[in-house]
Amino acid sequence: MAAVSESLPEQKRWYHSLAEKWDDWFSDIPMLAWLVGGLLSVILEYFVGSPFARMLGMPKAPVLFGFDIALKTPILIPSALLYDIIIYVLPILIVARAIGNVSNRIAQWLMDKSIVLATLVHIVLLYAVLQVWGDLSDYRVLVLKLTLIAIIGTLSLNVINGYMGEFSCSQPGFIALGAYAASVLSIILFVNNDLFGSLNLPASLAPFLFPFILILSGLISAVGALLVAVPSFRTRGDYLAIISLAFTFIVKSLLENLEVFGGPRGLSGQPDLSSLPVVFAWTMISIWIINNYVTSTFGKTMNAVRDGEMAANAMSIDTRKTKMVTFLFAAFWAGVSGGLLAHVLRYVNPSSFGIQKLAEVLGMVYFGGLNSVVGSIVGAVGMNILSEALRPLEIYKWIIIPIMIILIMIYRPTGLIAFREFNVKNLIRPKQKKGPEA
User: Fold this and answer.
1) 3-class secondary structure, 108
2) CB of 419 within 8 A of CB of 371?
3) For residue 281, what are the CA distances in angstroms to 86, 114, 197, 284, 287?
4) Nearest-angstrom CA–CA distance, 59 and 50
């Protein structure tokens, strides 16, 4: 490592030296320690965040890592940076380093007991971090919900555009079908509404039946996907993109002209069923199922079809069946994300599912990376946080974000994290200190 450092230009040696020190200090820290550090950090903010922010000259604790305050009042940028360092960065680093060895032993014990137990422990800690962080502001909770829902939608599109190698523009249509289906079902069953009359079931049953409503909304989206898949997969080339884009416009136009669903005014009055625990649970389930799907034997046939359809046919792979099943599977999860979204916002409008929605989902997929579950998660989280962070800039944020996407497409055409499999064991297993040769 020393020889490599000496061969670097003078201006880059400091960076290489810093990377070596970081590797020495933190390379053996498992995910368990980072999550505990994050939990203690958000607990610290919960109790002392507001008074500490006022001490630094800010009116209140920043709701989004200081971006909201810094962009509105640039003079407070140093205060926002200091707040983030004291509240988040230093506590996480110190705690993670302090309990690194103990966490490794605990992680090893959990792995020896059961991979399922180890995974559940990490998921519970992750949820605790998000819950405590969100407790300081309703806005934070909303951002968390929308980000988690975006992960489901991004994963569903990546299954088609990444793993299957097609280019679909129908995701907003599937999300709209799921959103309206879930909304209509929940309003008919549990709400007194002018459009659908009095409720048919006690409202107390709504939380228990909501999972079935989401599953049904996903199935309705999958049925809608047949209208795209049947004609599209009889042809080759770019026909799927054209037909799927037409499908999105058809769904949007139908919803705008069907007064029974509110027409262009939209549909409101959905019961408040998408709490943070519910959205978080569905996001974890979707990641698990979609990751198992794309890494299964059937999932590998998608890659074979993507890499060479004629060769896949020659190997006796039913390429049309593979495409159909995958397309319906992706549409199902898009519908589920739409159902969750409708009950988070408690309002749906046809204009929300047009070209802008398509651009958002495509941006998250290609920003994070094709053919990668990890990439979809990174893309959805990164794009949502970036969009919210730049909200104070108003119209200018729609200049900055497209420019960033264009730059990524130029320098990283496949996205930030592409073609990387998601393996939960790599996240939760104990880490060993790298040797000198590493």
Assistant:
1) helix
2) yes
3) 31, 20, 32, 5, 10
4) 8
| 295-331 per-position pLDDT tens digit | 888 888 888 888 877 887 777 778 888 888 999 999 9
Domains, in order of start, for the chain: 2-134 (no CATH), 138-425 (1.10.3470)
What sign results for the dihedral spanned by CA atoms 107, 108, 113, 114? positive
Strands (E), 144-252: none
Distances (CA, A) of 11 to 7, 19, 98, 249: 12, 14, 32, 54
Listed residue (335, 196, 343) closest to 270, CA to CA: 343
Q: What is the pLDDT of residues 340-359, one digit of tens each?
A: 999 999 999 998 898 888 88
Q: Print burial letters for 401-411: b (CB count within 10 Å at least 16), e (below 16).
A: beebbeebeee
Nearest one of 366, 360, 335, 361 to 348, comparing CA atoms: 335
Report d(CA 338, CA 330) in Å as an integer.
13
